[in-house]
Structures are given as C-alpha cells and as structure tokens.
C-alpha cells in the first residue's frame, strides 16, 4: 500500500534504537524525510546511516540531545524544515515502590512522559492545521490500559498524557483540519528495555534470567515478543494519508496479553 506520505517530514524521538527506530525505519521506507533524536551520539549516527541505506532518496538528519529539555527540543525542531509527522517517545521511568519516590522522581517522570510530548505537540500542531495535514503519534505503554504495580511513575505520567490527548485530539480546529493525534500502547517487545527489566527482575528475586524471560513470553497468547519493525509498520499506517479518520485512539499492541473486551 502506498501510504501517501512520500516527501513529508517527520520528527521521531528516542529513535536510535528500539520502537522509535522501528518507526523511523518504516517512515523512511515509505519516502518520509526524518529528523531522529536521542541522547547517545554514537548510536544515533549508526542508526542514521542504517536509515539512509534503507532509502537513499530521503533526507535523514540526526540531532543528539535530551528531548526532555527545552534546549533539546529546540535543536530537534530547528533541524526539521516542517513537522508533518511527530512521533513522541521517551524511555520510561524506573520501577519501584511509591513510598520511595520523592517529588523530584515524580517531576522527572512527568517531564519525560507527559510534559515533553505536550510541549512538542504545542510547538507543531498549529502549523500542521494551517497546512491541512498532521499526524502525531505518542508511544506510551500497555500499562496505561493494564497498570503494572511497580511502574507507578510510568502509569501516572503516561495516563496523564492519555487524558490530555483524549480532549485535544477531538478539537474541531485540529480534527477538522486533517490533524490526528493517537497513542500507541506497546506490550512486551524485543528491545533493550525488555531485557534490562528482565535482568532486574531476575536479580531482585534471585532467579535465572532465562526463566524470567520465558515466563514473560508465556503470558502472551501470541507466544512471542513483538518486533520493532511490526510496531513501526503500524505507526507508519497511523501516520499515513489513509488514517485521517483515526484520531484520539489508544492502539494496544501486546500479542493479546490484555484479557479485556474493551
């Protein structure tokens, strides 16, 4: 399927690896020019080179920096001639017990997983509406729909973003101007974060890493972890010209792990 977004410009956050990289790769394959951001310069440059090889006809720019800071956002936005597509993404806060989290821990979680996406939306959405095209995808978490007790910081911050988007996406001056805002909620995907959290769980419980990993996989009806490429493929469709009637939605990708009807 031709997604109808060839020649558009996308800003993809936290794109040096994992799900952000999968999204950038899918967009580049469909002819979208991208600005990718991440904090690690070396990994970011490796990814930029990989993306250029996927589609030599597009422009790929890399901007190393912390997207949760004003300076990091300004640098990323300045590198993008216009933002037709915005993919908000940031690593989740650490797990733990809410009794141990002070105000600074909560503010850091809110900055990364709620306020930063909102600031980037605010910086881009009006120009999208003026041009009559805009696609915003927020990568949140399956924990928004099925909270995980040790991920309270993430549950809270990402749920706050979800509530904000639910109202904003339905504003007639955006939805009526072909600007859509949706959230993608990943379950367990084969990423560095999955393996790091698995190792942490194994260490905390004095268990074998592989047994913990197998137990996680066993809870997924699909019988496997997701891949960054299949996540990216859905992201590219949500950003496509064909998805103009899809807005304000939470798209759960978890291999069937969530047991509910709604």
Summarize the structure in words.
The chain has 262 residues and is α/β, with parallel strands linked by helices. The protein has two domains: 9-187 and 228-250, 3-Layer(aba) Sandwich (Rossmann fold), CATH 3.40.50; 190-225. Helix content is 46%, strand content 14%. It contains nine helices and seven strands. It has helices at 18-29, 41-54, 70-79, 103-131, 152-168, 172-175, 192-205, 209-218, 228-238; strands at 9-12, 33-38, 60-64, 85-88, 134-139, 179-186, 250-253. Helix 2 links the parallel strand 2 and strand 3.
CATH architecture designation of the largest domain: 3-Layer(aba) Sandwich
Strand order of the largest sheet: 3-2-1-4-5-6-7
Radius of gyration, taken over Cα atoms and rounded to an integer in Å: 18 Å
Helix content: 40-55%
Family: Belongs to the short-chain dehydrogenases/reductases (SDR) family.
Organism: Caballeronia humi
Protein name: Short-chain dehydrogenase/reductase SDR
List keywords for this structure.
262 residues, alpha/beta, Rossmann fold, seven-stranded parallel sheet, 9 helices, 7 strands, 46% helix
Write the layout of secondary structure elements.
Blueprint: E1 9-12, H1 18-29, E2 33-38, H2 41-54, E3 60-64, H3 70-79, E4 85-88, H4 103-131, E5 134-139, H5 152-168, H6 172-175, E6 179-186, H7 192-205, H8 209-218, H9 228-238, E7 250-253
Helix pairs in contact: 1-2, 1-9, 4-5, 7-8
Family: Belongs to the short-chain dehydrogenases/reductases (SDR) family.
Pfam family, one: adh_short_C2
InterPro entries: NAD(P)-bd_dom_sf (IPR036291), SDR (IPR050259), SDR_fam (IPR002347)
């Amino acid at each position: 399927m031709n997604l109808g977004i060839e020649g558009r410009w996308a800003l993809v956050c936290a794109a040096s690896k994992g799900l952000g990289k999968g999204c950038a790769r899918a967009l580049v394959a469909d002819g979208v020019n991208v600005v990718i951001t991440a904090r690690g310069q070396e990994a970011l440059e490796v990814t930029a080179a990989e993306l250029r090889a996927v589609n030599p006809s597009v422009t790929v720019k890399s901007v190393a920096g912390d997207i949760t800071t004003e300076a990091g956002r300004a640098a990323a936005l300045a590198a993008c001639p216009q933002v037709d597509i915005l993919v908000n993404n940031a690593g989740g806060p650490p797990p733990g017990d809410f009794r141990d989290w002070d105000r600074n821990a909560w503010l850091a979680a809110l900055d990364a997983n709620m306020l930063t996406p909102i600031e980037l939306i605010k910086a881009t959405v009006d120009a999208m509406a003026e041009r009559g095209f805009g696609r915003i995808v927020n990568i949140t978490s399956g924990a928004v729909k099925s909270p995980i007790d040790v991920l309270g910081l993430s549950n809270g911050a990402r749920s706050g973003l979800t509530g904000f988007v639910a109202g904003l996406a339905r504003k007639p001056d955006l939805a009526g101007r072909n600007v859509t805002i949706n959230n993608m909620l990943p379950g367990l995907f084969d990423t560095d974060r999955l393996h790091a959290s698995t190792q942490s769980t194994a260490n905390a419980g004095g268990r074998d890493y592989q047994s913990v990993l197998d137990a996680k996989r066993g809870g997924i009806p699909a019988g496997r972890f997701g891949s960054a490429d299949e996540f990216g493929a859905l992201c590219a469709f949500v950003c496509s010209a064909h998805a103009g009637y899809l807005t304000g939605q939470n798209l759960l990708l978890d291999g069937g792990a969530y047991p509910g009807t709604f």
